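Thread amino acids onto this structure.
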């Protein structure tokens, strides 16, 4: 049969609709996240500890809710409708962030007065963003997968392109939103994120035709049916919007988030074990065990990697000499190096794995490499602090750390997504993808608890003493260096066993 599908760069044209939608979604997400720790500590005068924990709780919910959003899309809405709904929530959430109210003030006795209305609007905006990402993030990735037939060789390169779109958005955001936030005020930085997401939503809606019916609900009859005088589709939207009330409270209650993560993690683990014992045997069972072990190790990777938005961001603000080639960057703009390195290196890594042929290391070895690389990134920071004498740390050390972290990310993140789709039994791929993101969710929370090791006391309202601050960061980064290397070595030792359990499935990865 003749393939009627029109392509661009050899890929279905719909890929580029998803590329640009996700680019804008990540633009809004990372633009806001880059400003967040400074907004909390400098504008609302949060301590480092409470700022870190708030970011940890928020980011944990952001990555946990896609499990639910994915489930609802699978069963009822379909990916396309879920993405439109998520997009609308995101535009509202980011625009809500643009309301800034009054800055907190500190009296001579140290007492802090905060604008509670502004804070509640802020928490509610976070809740809208959590709901929005929950409906959008996993579903747009699944929709990318749907553009290709089973066995289509273009699938992995399609995902590589998509991952570059993610990072193009992140790159632009960490430059533009951070600059706007700093030069014109928080509302402008956060507002720009909202405008970006609005473009993303427009892109997605206007590209509907190019999707050619992909991502539609598998259950349209159910959506049209009325209960209590309302279409089921609308009942889903209304209940989802109401769920923001729960997220609104949860972002303000860190122990509730921690408890929810433990329950969700424990329940998922029990379900996987139950499923492996009762539904699977032989090869399929062992492959699921291998995947589960790999996912557990990703928790460590992301817990280290995600220091970027808390401790590493504050480090860049307080201790780094931020000049490169005579230009001074803002602290948040250093985050753009991660995105830039991804854009430059993703095609090279994809090419390299293929080129290595039968020497292409298996997934477990790649994950162990990722852990060591993220550890080494902190090693670079330790070194940078140690050679800095009495002055600030040279910018090159943080850039080097991001380079190493990015190489780690490329050995784990795209490879891991691919591994999830190939090692899970087909009936629970969606669920296992959810578990993959749930692992990231736990990491985000753990990352913020770890970041508190480096918290600097700013309660007197003065800028922290350079050397005291340096010692705090040194302690944290040393610890993370050993953690990365240690877990990397453990996984390397385990890798021959995991390789056996995978039964050669990962041989076809990344081809
Ligand atoms: N940076 C990637 C993204 O935003 C991966 C995030 C993750 O899985 N923790 O999609």
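Threaded sequence (511 positions):
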């Amino acid at each position: 049969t003749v393939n009627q599908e029109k392509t661009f760069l050899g890929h279905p044209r719909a890929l580029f609709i998803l590329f640009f939608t996700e680019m804008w979604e990540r633009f809004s997400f990372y633009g806001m996240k880059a400003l967040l720790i400074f907004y909390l500590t400098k504008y609302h005068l949060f301590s480092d500890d409470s700022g870190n924990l708030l970011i940890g709780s928020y980011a944990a919910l952001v990555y946990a809710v896609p499990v639910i959003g994915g489930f609802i899309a699978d069963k009822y809405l379909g990916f396309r409708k879920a993405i439109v709904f998520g997009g609308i929530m995101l535009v509202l959430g980011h625009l809500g962030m643009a309301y800034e109210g009054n800055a907190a003030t500190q009296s001579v006795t140290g007492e802090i007065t905060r604008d509670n209305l502004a804070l509640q609007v802020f928490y509610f905006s976070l809740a809208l963003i959590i709901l929005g990402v929950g409906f959008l993030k996993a579903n747009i990735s699944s929709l990318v997968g749907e553009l290709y037939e089973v066995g289509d060789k273009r699938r992995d390169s399609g995902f590589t392109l998509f991952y570059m779109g993610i990072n193009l958005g992140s790159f632009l955001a960490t430059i533009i939103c951070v600059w706007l936030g700093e030069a014109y005020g928080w509302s402008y930085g956060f507002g720009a994120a909202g405008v970006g997401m609005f473009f993303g939503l427009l892109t997605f809606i206007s590209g509907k035709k190019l999707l050619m019916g992909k991502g539609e609900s598998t259950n349209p009859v159910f959506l049209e049916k009325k209960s209590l005088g309302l279409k089921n589709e609308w009942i889903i939207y209304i209940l989802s919007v109401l769920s923001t009330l729960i997220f609104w409270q949860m972002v303000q209650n860190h122990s509730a988030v921690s408890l929810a993560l433990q329950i969700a993690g424990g329940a998922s683990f029990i379900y996987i074990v139950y499923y492996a014992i009762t539904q699977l045997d032989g090869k399929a069972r062992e492959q699921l065990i291998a995947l589960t072990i790999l996912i557990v190790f990703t928790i460590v990777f992301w817990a280290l990697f995600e220091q970027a938005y808390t401790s590493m961001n504050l480090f860049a603000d307080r201790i780094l000499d931020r000049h490169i080639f005579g230009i001074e960057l803002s602290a948040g703009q250093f985050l753009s190096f991660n995105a830039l390195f991804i854009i430059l290196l993703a095609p090279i890594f994809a090419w390299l794995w293929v080129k290595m042929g039968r020497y292409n290391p298996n997934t477990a070895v790649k994950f162990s490499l990722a852990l060591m690389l993220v550890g080494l990134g902190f090693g670079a920071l330790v070194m940078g602090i140690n050679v800095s004498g009495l002055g600030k740390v040279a910018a090159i050390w943080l850039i080097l750390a991001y380079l190493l972290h990015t190489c780690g990310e490329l050995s784990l993140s795209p490879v891991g997504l691919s591994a999830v789709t190939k090692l899970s039994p087909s009936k629970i791929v969606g669920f296992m993808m959810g578990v993959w993101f749930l692992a990231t969710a736990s990491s985000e929370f753990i990352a913020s608890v770890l970041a508190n090791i480096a918290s600097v006391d700013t309660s007197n309202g003065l800028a922290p003493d350079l050397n005291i601050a340096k010692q705090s960061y040194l302690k944290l980064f040393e610890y993370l260096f050993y953690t990365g290397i240690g877990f990397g070595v453990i996984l390397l030792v385990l890798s021959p066993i995991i390789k056996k359990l995978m039964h050669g499935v990962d041989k076809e990865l990344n081809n």
